[in-house]
């Protein structure tokens, strides 16, 4: 009988092995790959376009305090801010500061806002042939809360007669609102600063003191 030699020490006898498994390749849809690549390209193009539209940051002028209409601007009213040149904004750049310093506020300027050239004017307030006066007006003689600085208005003098003639034409005066602020007394009275022709200043002041004025808001081209 032939004897089978024992395997050397440390040698493991291999048992039966499984048949090799075939690895299935994952099927990749080329259409989705194309969509993904296209999305990445579009995102990159969009970012580049946005960067070009916004551009690098630049220095502009901003208002440091509330400035009433007609105030002559100085460097104390302004500060320098740095921001991106966002589309739709036209603030005054630092390089154009000489164009606005020494000019006058054409509209009320709010603290913390950017300054634009459309908000300033070279015309002094009051101008030649004009007077600036302040009158106390009850709220029921003002056109609601729509009146603002810069608005043209018509001042209508009411009659002092008990039974006025309805066919009599009232006296009227053209004016421009310079500033509005709440009255210091009780109630809802307003102090209205008006720019009026020099010839009408004294009459308007007297009628206002007698409580005989009503303010009518007119269009920019009205009279």
From TrEMBL:
Residues 58-121 form the SAF domain. The chain crosses the membrane at residues 31-51. This is SAF domain-containing protein. InterPro entries: SAF. Keywords: Membrane, Transmembrane, Transmembrane helix.
């Amino acid at each position: 009988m032939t004897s089978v030699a024992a395997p050397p020490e440390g040698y493991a006898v291999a048992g039966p092995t499984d048949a090799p498994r075939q690895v299935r390749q994952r099927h990749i849809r080329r259409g989705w790959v194309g969509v993904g690549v296209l999305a990445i390209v579009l995102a990159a193009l969009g970012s580049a376009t946005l960067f070009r539209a916004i551009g690098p940051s630049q220095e502009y002028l901003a208002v440091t305090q509330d400035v009433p209409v007609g105030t002559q601007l100085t460097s104390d009213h302004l500060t320098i801010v740095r921001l991106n040149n966002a589309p739709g904004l036209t603030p005054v750049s630092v390089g154009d500061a000489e164009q606005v310093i020494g000019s006058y506020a054409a509209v009320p300027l709010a603290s913390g806002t950017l300054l634009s050239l459309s908000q300033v004017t070279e015309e002094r307030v009051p101008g030649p042939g004009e007077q600036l006066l302040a009158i106390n007006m009850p709220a029921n003689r003002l056109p609601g809360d729509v009146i603002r600085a810069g608005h043209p208005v018509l001042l209508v003098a009411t009659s002092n007669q008990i039974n006025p003639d309805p066919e009599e034409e009232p006296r009227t005066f053209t004016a421009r609102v310079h500033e509005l602020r709440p009255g210091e007394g009780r109630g809802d009275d307003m102090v209205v600063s008006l720019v009026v022709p020099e010839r009408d200043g004294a009459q308007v002041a007297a009628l206002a003191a007698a409580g005989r004025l009503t303010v009518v808001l007119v269009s920019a081209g009205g009279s």
